[in-house]
Specification:
Helices cover 26% and strands 26% of the residues. By secondary structure, the protein is α/β, with parallel strands linked by helices.
Length: 145
Amino acid sequence: MARDVQITFDCADPAMLAEFWADVLGYEIQKPPGNFVSWDDALDAMGVPLDRRNDASAVVDPDEAGPRLFFQKVPEGKQAKNRVHLDVRAAPGLDGAARMDALEAEAERLVTRGATRLERHEPSPPLGAGHIVMADPEGNEFCLD
């Protein structure tokens, strides 16, 4: 039996990182539970103090096809290279120069949103299509693929 997955990010600023990844993936911030109009209304009803309101956030695929991304506040900063990372498919169906041009355009857009460009890997056929390694605003590596 296949299982649904959620991808969890440990981070310092869940709200900011959720906004970043919602933009990268075309996701949306998860709506508040029940009939609450806003997260502030829901958190008020749950008795969550103001200083704890950025302890977690989540983004979801509006088409309900992709996994939920959950962002949880942790006290420690990132300490090492990711052993697992996301590949963001930013150039589907493209190859060669057209693929790399599309990846470059997306890399430039994401840098304006707080990402850092780390390195470019040129296409190396037959298996290497080329990709760009990036980091989100908190340093988590991901690839534009």
